[in-house]
Amino acid sequence: MTILQRIRSPGLSFAQTVVSLALGGAALTSSYWCVGVQKVPKPLCSLSRQRRCVPVPGMANASDVLFSWDTGDDRFVFPEFHVGIFYCCQENIYTDAWEEKCRSFHSLTPQSEKAMMWLSVTMELMYMGLLCLSCLLLCLQLCVGACSPAGRRWGQLFNAFAAIFTVLAGLIGMVAHMMFMQVFQTTVSMGPEDFKPHSYGYSWAFYVAWVGFTLCMAAGVSTLNSYTKKVLMAARRYPSASDYTVPYPDSPPPLSHLSPYYDPHSPAAIPPAHATPLSPLSRLPPPSPGDSPRPGRPESLRRSPGEDDDMLR
Questions:
Q1: β pairing state of 34-38 and 197-202
Q2: To 10 degrees, the CA torsion angle through 117, 122, 126, 129?
Q3: What are phi and psi of 44, to 5 degrees?
Q4: Does the structure show a pLDDT above 90 at 129?
Q5: pLDDT confidence of 78, banded at 50, 70, 90?
Q6: CA-CA distance, 159 to 137, in Å (whole number)?
Q7: Which residues contact 161 (CB under 8 A, 6 or more apart)?
Q8: What distance in Å separates the CA atoms of residue 169 and residue 13, rounded to the nearest whole number?
Q9: Between β-strands 76-77 and 100-104, what pairing exists: parallel, antiparallel or unpaired?
C-alpha cells in the first residue's frame, strides 16, 4: 500500500511530467531523429578539396594523371547526414575540412506530404504546450497543499485537469511522432535526388522522444488514479435500501395487560414474531364442537343456541 501511495503522489507525477517535458523539448529541437549516409560520386578536385576527389587537368596540385582508375565504390563518397523535425544537415563534400550544410526539412518533403508535415509540427507544439500546462497545474496543486491544507478541494481540481491534459498530450505526441516518421519515409523514396540515403537508421532523439512519451503517459495515469482514489472512491455513496432498514431492538417491549399473551406470572414471555394482532379476539382460532369456552371471553357475550334462534325470530 505504501508503494501505491508513493506512485499516486502528486510530487512523483510532477517530476515525471517535468522530465517528459524536458525530453520532449530536447527531441523536438534536435536534428538527430534519423542518421545515415549517402552515396554520391566523388567531386572534382579544387583548391578546397584535394582528397577523395577526381583529378582535374591544369590544377596546380593535381597529378599528371588525366584519367581516374577508380572502380566500384572507390568512385563514390559516403557523406553522413542527420534529420530532425525542423531541419536536415548533410556533410559538405566539396571541402576537405569537416563541414555541414543545413536546410529546412520542409523543403525536402514532396508536395503531397507538406500538409501532413505541417500537421505533425503543429501537433508536436500542442504536445509541448499541454505538457507545460500540466506542469503548471501540478505545481499549483503542490503549492496549495503545502500552504493551505484547507484548500485541498482546489488542489484536487488542479489534479483532475492536470490528469486530463497530460493524457491528452501523450496521445497527441504519439500521433505526431508517427506522422513525422511516415513523412520521412515518403521523403526518402520520393524526395529530391540530392537527398537519397544509401542507408539510414534511428538516432538518439527518436528514442528520447518515445521515452518522454512513456513518462508522460505514466504521469497522466498516476495523476488520474490519484484523483479517482481521493475524490471519486472516497465520496459518500448514495443511500441504498439497506440504509433505511430499521434494526430490531435488543429486547422486546413489555407486553400490555390487555394482550392475550400477557401472563402476570411470566412477564418476560416473548410472543411470536409474526403475531401482531389488531385486537385480542381477531387472532383466536374458530370454535369447534366440543371445545370449552375460550378463556378471557366475558360471560355477557356468551349466548346459547336458543337465544340465537329467538333473536332471529
A1: antiparallel
A2: 120
A3: -70, 150
A4: yes
A5: confident
A6: 7
A7: 137
A8: 14
A9: unpaired
Q: Phi, psi (5° rounding) for residue 2?
A: -65, -40
Cell of 54: 577526381
49 with 62: CB under 8 angstroms? no
* Assigned C-alpha cell, 150: 484547507
CA 39/CA 271 separation, integer angstroms: 104
What pLDDT, on the 0 to 100 scale, is given for residue 147? 72
What SS3 class is residue 106? helix
Q: Which residues contact 206 (CB under 8 A, 6 or more apart)?
A: 27, 32, 33, 34
At residue 113, φ and ψ (nearest 5 deg) are -110, 0
Burial tier of 96 (Cβ tally within 10 Å: 0-12, 13-18, 19+): middle
In terms of Cα–Cα distance, which of 39, 119, 46 is closest to 80? 39
Q: Which helix (H) or strand (E) holds 284?
A: none
